[in-house]
Amino acid sequence: MLLNLLRKLGFSQDQHYVFSHHRLVGFWLIMISFVIAFATMLGGRLFSIDFLIHPIVLTVGFGLAMIIIQLKSIENHFVRIPLASFQKRIAAWGDKSLFVFIFICAGPFWPGLNFQRIWMGVFLGVAIHFFFFFFTTGKSMIVLTFLCGINAIAGLVFTQYFIYFTYVDALLKGSMGLYLLCFSKLQTWKWER
Question: What is the pTM of this model?
């Protein structure tokens, strides 16, 4: 079933796929980790509502990071081999899935305005969406999915330690970003039965 779905996206069992975007993703994760840590450090009191994480700083920081990562000069600096068409399609699906997973994981907490659980739901949705990027970045995305997912689930259970789980999320993303940017090697992958 999974193989049939991947084939519809252009996957070929005979092709070797190159994980050439690992350094670009590492740079992205480092930027996002700083945005999360800074927005958490500033706190989220805005319009007499305590959002816990500053939503404007987080949104603007995410938007600026998105603009920076899309610049051709940045992409050319970090990426040597372009993605295969299948990898481009699955990355686009990963980007789109982010909002679906955030809605599923954080949406149930909106009626009560439980911002601790809303933010942890957002982080859980982000963690799940990292799985799609296995096809462009490699096994490190599965590791990041697992680590960030466990952290977010723990944050949903132990809400009194919310701030710590938020900083741990930023630390996990930043650490994986540093690994991908500085230490990860170019890898290839082929479907093995």
Answer: 0.88
